[in-house]
Amino acid sequence: MSESVHHAYIGLGSNLNGPRQHVEKALINLQYLPVTTLVAVSPCYASKPVGPQDQPDFINAVARVDTRLSPLALLDQLQALEQQHRRRRLRHWGPRTLDLDLLLFDDLDLDLPRLTLPHPAMQERAFVLFPLADIAPELTIGATRLKDLLLHMKDDDLQRL
User: Fold this and answer.
1) How far is CA 144 from CA 72, 110, 125, in A?
2) Could you count the other beta carbons within 10 Å of the beta carbon of residue 144?
3) What's the pTM value of the predicted model, to 2 decimals?
4) Catalytic residue among 86, 88, 114, 160
5) Among this protein's residues, is 101 annotated catalytic?
6) How far apart are CA 38 and CA 74, in angstroms?
7) Annotated catalytic, 99?
8) What is the pLDDT along the chain (161 residues), one digit of tens a residue?
């Protein structure tokens, strides 16, 4: 555990077994992570799946937490929450009860076998960027302002709930 407080953004998604309820329950679960405070939550969005289209649409949201956990300790906590929601990894980009992605952790650039920060695909995903803008419109990802990323992002397959 580190002494200082870190700002982290987490992407939440689900498309199985009552997906909105899984996302809402996960948001409650985030409030109980050790040395972590849930600071902000975006509205939920419905989105088409990335990858195989033979699966239900997703419910997505983004949350900001302030934490004293390290990036890997936070990742461990998020993966434990996925397991509590009976997450099974049957195929890449397949359906899931809960997906929790650590998107950003302060301004940290990290490239480890288990964790890359910022999340490598987030800048291409409307279902991440639009909810992120709801709670952190002035955010900068690397050297790029979130506002600038949104200028070129299509939201055709995204519905704010």
Assistant:
1) 25, 17, 15
2) 12
3) 0.94
4) 86
5) yes
6) 13
7) yes
8) 557 999 999 999 999 989 999 999 999 999 999 999 999 999 999 999 988 888 999 999 999 999 999 999 999 999 999 998 876 656 566 688 999 999 999 999 999 999 999 999 999 999 999 999 999 999 999 899 999 999 989 888 899 99
